Description:
The complex is a heterodimer. Chain A is α+β, with helices and mostly antiparallel strands. Chain A has helices at residues 21-31, 59-62, 80-85, 96-99, 109-112, 148-151, 188-192, 219-223, 245-248, 255-258, 277-281, 289-296, 303-311, 316-323, 326-333, 386-393, 398-419, 426-431, 436-448, 451-454, and strands spanning 3-12, 43-47, 66-69, 72-75, 103-105, 124-126, 175-179, 198-200, 207-209, 229-232, 237-240, 265-273, 297-298, 338-339, 350-353. In chain A, helix 16 crosses helix 17 (398-419). The two termini of chain A are 27 Å apart. By secondary structure, chain B is α/β, with parallel strands linked by helices. Chain B contains 38 helices and 38 strands. In chain B, the strands form 10 sheets. In chain B, strands 7-6-25-24-23-8-9-22 form an 8-stranded mixed sheet. A 6-stranded mixed β-barrel of chain B has the order 33-37-34-36-35-38. In chain B, helix 8 packs across helix 31 and helix 12 packs parallel to helix 19 (541-554). Chain B is globular and about 85 Å long. Chain B starts with 6 loop residues before the first helix and ends in a 10-residue tail after the last strand. Chains A and B meet through helix 1, strand 5, helix 5, helix 6 and strand 8 of A and helix 1, strand 2, helix 2, strand 5 and helix 11 of B. Chain B: Keywords: 4Fe-4S, Cell membrane, Electron transport, Iron, Iron-sulfur, Membrane, Metal-binding, Molybdenum, Nitrate assimilation, Oxidoreductase, Transport. Chain B: It is a peripheral membrane protein. Chain B: This is nitrate reductase (quinone). Chain B: Its cofactor is [4Fe-4S] cluster; Mo-bis(molybdopterin guanine dinucleotide).
Amino acid sequence: xxxxxxxxxxMNLDKCIGCHTCSVTCNNTWTNRPGAEYMWWNNVETKPxxxxxxxxxxxxxxxxGWVLKDGExxxxxxxxxxxxxxxxxxxxxxxxxxxxxxxxxxxETLIESPEKQHQPxxxxxxxxTGDYMEIExxxxxxxxxxxxxETGWRDPNMRGLEEEVKFQFEQTFMMxxxxxxxxxxxxxxxxxxxxxxxxxxxxxxIVLVDQDACRSWRFCxxxxxxxxxxxxxxxxxxxxxxxxxxxxxxxxxxxCSETCVGRLRYIGIVFYDLDKVEEAASVTDEKDLYxxxxxxxxxxxxxxxxxxxxxxxxxxxxxxxxxxxxxxxLAVEQKIALPLHPEYRTMPMVWYVPPLSPIMDSFGNxxxxxHPQMIFPAIDDMRIPIQYLANLFTAGDTEVIRSVLKxxxxxxxxxxxxxxxxxxxQNLLKQIDMTEETLREMYELAAxxxxxxxx
Amino acid sequence: xxxxxxxxxxxxxxxxxxxxxxPHSEVSPYGRESEKVYRRRWQHDKVxxxxxxxxxxxxxxxxxxxxxxxxxxxxxxxxxxxxxxGLPEYEPRGCPRGASFSWYTYSPLRIRYPYxxxxxxxxxxDALKRTGEPVAAWKSIVEDPExxxxxxxxxxxxxxxxxxxxxxxxxxxxxxxxxxxxxxxxRIFGFSPIPAMSMxxxxxxxxxxxxxGGSMLSFYDWYADLPPASxxxxxxxxxxxxSSDWFNSGYLLVWGSNLPQTRTPDAHFYVEARYRGTKVxxxxxxxxxxxxxxxxxxxxxxxxxxxxxxxxxxxxxxxFYVDQPTDYFTDYVKKFTDLPFxxxxxxxxxxxxxxxxxxxxxxxxxxxxxSEWKTxxxxxxxxxxxxxxxxxxxxxxxxxxxxxxxDDASGEGExxxxxxxxxxxxxxxxxxxxxxxxxGKTVLYRGVPVKAIQRNGKxxxxxxxxxxLLAKTGVSRGLPGDDPADYDDPxxxxxxxxxxxxxxxxxTAAQIAREFAxxxxxxxxxxxxxxxxxxxHWYHSDAIYRTILNLVLLTGSQGVNGGxxxxxxxxxxxxxxxxxxxxAMARDWGGPPRLMNGTSFxxxxxxxxxxxxxxxxxxxxxxxxxxxxxxxxxxxxLATRLGWLPSYPQFTENPIHFYKKSGAKNDDEAIxxxxxxxxxxxxxxxxxxxxxxxxxxxxxxxxRANLIGSSAxxxxxxxxxxLGTHHANMDDPSSDLTTQEIDWGGEAPEGKLDLMxxxxxxxxxxxxxxxxxxxxxxxxxxxxxxxxxxxxxxxPFNPAIAPPWESRSDWDFFKKLAHTFSKLAEKHFPEMxxxxxxxxxxHDSRDxxxxxxxxxxxxxxDGSEPVPGVNFxxxxxxxxxxxxxxxxxxxxxPMVKEQIGAKGLGWNAKEEYDRLKELIGRASETEEYRDCxxxxxxxxxxxxxxxxxxxxxxxxxxxxxxxxxxKTGQKLKDLVEERSEEHITFxxxxxxxxxxxxxxxYSGTETxxxxxxxxxxxxxxxxxxxxxxxxxxxxxxxxxxxxxxxELPTFRAPLRKAxxxxxxxxPDVKRKEIALRYLTPHYKWSYHSxxxxxxxxxxxxxxxPHVWLNNEDAAEVGIADNDWLEMYNRNGVVVARAVVSHRLxxxxxxxxxVQDRYIYVPGSTISKQRGGTFNSPTRIxxxxxxxxxxxxxxxxxxxxxxPTGNQRDEQVMIRRLSEQEVDWLEH
Lengths: 455, 1227
């Protein structure tokens, strides 16, 4: 056993209100400076949609992540030798226009304009060239499904839904997806860097770019399938989310988490076995990757694990932190958090609880299926297609999604009984393989979510 | 990883030698010095607790990080007092808008220096040189038509030049003194909204203007955020649960309120409540952010919400009152609503009857005090009529019977009111009931059980409000009439009937109603409806609201934690109310202040009344042959002369001249002089002739607001008539609809305002169109206070840095202006002047029982005597010493020692006044008032507000509850005893936000760290509502309510309007255009309704003005996503980009709020000018029922009751604008 501690994050998408406070506080704290204007280390996307940068999930084009070739893991963008051959021209790098051209306005005109025939106006100017420009794309262009009746079909998660879904009013569904660097256990950006300038910190798994060592090759940008490594056009260095290590190191949660006004972010430590990573990332069937990832995590309550952790030099407070880690609870114990695109084989460490959504039939005549005593809507009647969520979080396995949503629905039903002073239906608990105690714990973490329990 | 490599070496090395960690990943060969790059970025020098003074109701406490003396960034505080175990906390509060506010501090939008438009400054300097005296100089400019036209028509066209503060203050003071001399102080206006968002900053300007005799304009009603249904039903401006109380709900119906978007920091309670098993149903025409969280989405047709609510009312009444009566509901409505009260019927040819007014004790010959104000119920215990405690008649007598015990005040014991007369009726008669459909109106004929009584020798019939409500909603009890047979019968108000109007399936509508009620049964009232501007901005918003509020009243959910209405539109809750009112309204020095309702003011000041296209013939009850007046403006004049509404400018003459002119020996004689001259038609109310130059508003201050760019409903009318500059109006003023009483006169005047002063920290649509643009301190640069109805805390603004460049806090700006003004007044007003101030008959004062029975007694028509305070505005003589304005501004006057209070309760603040002198020091800067507490600084003012309010000072809370005990005869002081020693100071709230104390100034209680929910003290402590019956009212019996058919909650559709009418200057458009309903919901990427121009927020969506429309609608006119388009109607033109999405239904267009015209707006091919604001296609219409006054809860209160500036009933045309047609108009 080669035990490693890793910081992870869970975002409960069912709570995300799509407000982007996380993006703004992250941007203010880290990237509102020249060369970094277009970087949103944390961004939020409306799904369905092609996101930021455009079509980042389309790996046929973007060439991010790992693939299995003859049973061996290989970067999709090619081996190191390929890179060296193309070192001065990376054909797969994502151009800035696919992020967006950052702009500002000639605001000062409003105060300084001489008297004219017409009211002065502030027009957009490129932050790259200083010229007037028209705004054609931005970091959140598709907010709340703006233009998605067209772009939506280019969202790879719509795979398999072409027959079922039409982008029309009656069928509208949406969710928000806040994204930061995944701080992967199997990070392709690290493997992509010809300069060895990207490293995964040994003590906590945070993936960082060494600003002194970066040589601007930009292979990391291609290698990352989440497109979460950016290129500072002023300093000519790659930059990315640091998991706010200067805050983490003094016991503060990341800025995106603390300022998350939906209170949907959880941070914690998990232990995993480094020796098993390759094997786990190399399972043949993509649908097995989720379970393989789960199996990497070590039970922090297991005395053997505790002993190994001590041996590996982890202090007692780290071990205790791992034991009360909300990440471990949500991902392993409650199994309601899921990794983003496990099929990229990156073993990402930012996980998501998939969202519930309204039932489909408020337009038609179909209220028959719903019991007047408010049994919550059936999972398959919800507006967000199960397949869509499965394409995001389980490499297409809809059963896992069903089981998570079912747990949440049962929690609501159970708690409603408690709320109204009625006897909860114990059968429901059996169906989701939970006890009253674990369900209560799930409720406390999801609903009450005090600061000290989230981080 | 452990090997150290020198940074220089790293720089020289191009390929790294990484160490394999595992076969799939690698470890860097370098050291980790470069991590310091990010560590340094995070480092900062100090963190300051402050907040944002934005009108969003968030009231979030923030940490502002300062680094090297520069504001670096902000993040949310997480240290609110706990809500306790088992409940989510308020941390963190804040949203992306708040988190990016610091962008403004150093932005190029920042106003750093005082600016004047060059055209005016040149004239001013010339005139000053020529005349040698400021007031004469100003007079010479504004009285020269050519000169004044020159600088007024330059408004909005750039050309600002820097000036210095001295020069500016002299110019303003001169304009004010000239205006006071020439026209009167009531021609000077101040517009600043939402005191709760920064009370001291509001108070700075208000205090100055009130000391001068100027008029503050209301905002809550003008913004159409005020829900008039609230005062109508509860006698309360607005009182709602704090957001954490949503979590206590068992069933949440969220109706037209986009919580994640507009109540961002609170939305988590909504989201989290679901995990507790709360069912969530949303009503929204589009798939909005809040719909994402719902279990069910009712996609209602815009504006048809009242139909859905009436059908739900029908279902609840039928299933839970008639088919299977529910004890919990029945008990509740008997105790806490007017449903058991008796209504007189009016006979019509003896075949049919119509509901009239509440039966009163006086009708029965009972001769107690105020018997015409005491309403009556049928006691089933004694089978007699009884007058219960708690009516408004009891409120204004001193017997301590103003409580909700169902006792007969005469001591005959407990009353058991009959909800219905069925079973004990003398007869069943058929009623004629007014009914409205989108395309017209009809009369419903429905039976009710009645009792016969003898009155004035005649037989008259009475029935209960409950019986009337069943008849109205068509819930059949087998009585004669045309009740619908079942839910599938398309007669009003069945689920089938609503289906064709709302598009919502009938079974779903019935099911949701049933669930909502059943949940209330199961949880004893924890059914809640969150309501928002989606339903509150319509012309008939009050009617819509009343239909929806039926649901919470009938299910006993109001006054229960987790239940009731939760209206969140705008921000009205100043928790430390009395202290703030005292300072802002300068009540410490006397008064009364001139407080004007914004809607009426702007309706007349911008001449929108001349373009009125909504005749009242369409609006009145089908039982009326015709309305009293066809034109809404005439109703406003009626409301003025009867003392219902305030009206400034007041009269056609200067109010400071009356006293002298009259030769009066005392105030009464001066007042009589004014009344006599009005009666003899020698003098007129100014509103009778709003287009006459004598009656123009002359000077206007705007601070903490973007009046022109954001809040100007009818923007183009503002530009044309108020400001006198370019506009894109295509309307035809020579309408068929003219006024009967208001003088139409000749041409509509343009450029009424002489001086527009804008105080702000950033340039915006108001600054661009003002004459003076003055630099204000931002929210991170001053002391102030913040509170909200969303949470129970009070917390501060603190300066993170001193106001940079030449900026000043609002308090300091007005203080220094007051100084200049007072100095200049020494010459022009060497003596005290006596100002005759007219004020309306106010709610919560004895004047609310001035006009009995709600009958319109018009002295102008019926020849009766106008009597101030009865059927005429109250008149006061106020002494003003203009030389002392500054001294009074900075000293807290002694009147608070005697009397302070709110909402009809008064107490003294003697000890608190004396303590304040110790706490904040004395006004040593003054000559005369050196023993008064000093208000020299904004921080002192904040401290005084906290000290003088019952919600923040335990000793005053005790006095307040004591007074409430005296009035009600109920034991109440225990509600605050646990915290009676507390006195919340500014220092304390700087350490941590503090939870307010329970006070009778609000209707709920926080005692025992309980979540605030309104009306819990009414329900639990039997304090009456401040209404006619003392109960929550379904029935409103004022004559005007009957005239408009709104005595009971009723469905009313949006106004019937078109984008253009015959005679309008309709543009010739050759390409395809499409007509759509124009909606302006709250925007996601703006700081509530004011700020949308920061780079981070513009970057996070589309970078400029845009409108949303459905993809199929867009395709019809060839518009693709992000195309430019023109959107227009007779009011004006917008040029914006299209956001096309299937999330919108067909037939509507959304232009989210606040999209002003100074960012990324090209010219319009139609107007040949720059495109307008989101308010360019809008205009307002005034609703007469909201003007009612002098009558119980329908009496006027500032921001409390009055016509709302609704703007939602418009249609627009849209066409594509090709890239070639986009012209930036850079000349």
